[in-house]
Amino acid sequence: MLRTGDWDAYLASFHAARPGITEQALHHAAHPDLGNPYAWLAAALPASLGTVLDVACGNAALLPWLTGHHSYLGVDVSDHEVAAARREGRGPVMLADARRLPMDDSAVDTVVSSMGLMLVRPVEAAVAEIRRVLRPGGTLALLVPAVWPVRLSDVALGLPLAVALRGPGSMPQQLSPRRLRRVLRTGGFRTQAIERRRFPFPVHSDEHAALAVRALYTPGRSTRQLLRAESILSRWARPAAELPVPLMRVVATA
Fold first, then answer.
1. Out of 4, 72, 80, 107, which could bridge 103 as a Cys pair, Cβ 3.0 to 4.6 Å?
2. Does residue 213 lie in a domain region?
3. Residue environment code for 148-166, b if the CB has 16+ CB neighbours within 10 A, otherwise e
4. pLDDT tens, 197-240?
5. How many CA atoms lie within 13 A of 93 on its CB side?
6. Of 145, 93, 91, 86, which is closest to residue 116 (Cα–Cα)?
7. pLDDT of 100-135, one tens digit each?
8. Containing structural domain, residue 143
9. What is the percent of the chain with per-residue pLDDT over 90, rounded to a whole number?
């Protein structure tokens, strides 16, 4: 496991080189009943969102799915992701750390965070800041990676990829349901729902294989290892081939 400073440097370099790649991957991983993960997260939100803060927003990929809001602000520590959001005409967005949000107390009605909170350490500091800026009774909705559900058939494609990379993709921390409940409770939130779903990531072409590898956080892996992983996935590419993307949706109130 990388130290916090090493992770910060790796993530800065990753998102500088690949702004918007998380959106590309999650749009590709569409569920037949739920749609893509952004649609799934947005479906858990109340009809009226009021003032929305998108924490660790990346290129503001969630914004098109946030209907019923009066105003929106996205914050992220990557200037490259913020620039990508602005190129897409999404915003307003600004550079800011989730642990030091540039807002007054009780300033927003809804906080969302898609695939970002697991990157912030200590996560407790981010949750405390989110609670500070969220009005009493406001909604927090999170999307983070999960370790399941997966299928037995997922091993056929996932195992060769893990072997090529000498392990699966990495994360600064794993936010389990139990840990998230504890962190949210300590931070002053009431957890309303935690759900997990498997989103299929089709691998039908060389382009899909490349996207699957390049969207992973793979600190310490060489360019040769990454290219080998892409090559292995490409060999398995076929109409029925897919990788699992297990995700967890968390909804809490302040």
1. 107
2. no
3. eeeeeebeebeeebeebbe
4. 999 999 999 999 999 999 999 999 999 999 999 999 999 999 98
5. 28
6. 145
7. 999 999 999 999 999 999 999 999 999 999 999 999
8. 4-149+172-200+243-253
9. 87
Q: Reply yes or no on whether the pLDDT at 1 is more than 60.
A: no
Q: Is 187 helix (H, G, I), strand (E, B) or coil?
A: coil
Residue 160 in any domain: the answer is no
CA distance 154 to 239: 15
Q: Which residue has the tokens 């892996």?
A: 221
CATH label of the domain that carries residue 19: 3.40.50.150
**Does 97 map to a domain?**
yes
21: Cβ contacts below 8 Å, ≥ 6 apart: 211, 214, 215
Q: How many domains does the chain have?
A: 1
Report whether pLDDT(25) > 60: yes
Q: Whole-angstrom Cα distance, residue 123 to residue 92?
A: 25
**How many residues in the chain?**
254
Helices (H), 44-197: 79-87, 123-133, 155-164, 177-186
Two structure tokens written together for 225: 């290892």
Tell me, yes or no, whether 232 lies in a domain. no
Cβ-contact 54, 60 below 8 angstroms: yes
Close Cβ partners of 25 (under 8 Å, ≥ 6 residues apart): 201, 211, 212, 215, 245
Exposure string over 186-214, b if 16+ CB within 10 A, otherwise e = ebebebeebeebbbbbbbeeeebbbbbbb
Contact between residue 75 and residue 56 where contact means Cβ atoms under 8 Å apart: yes
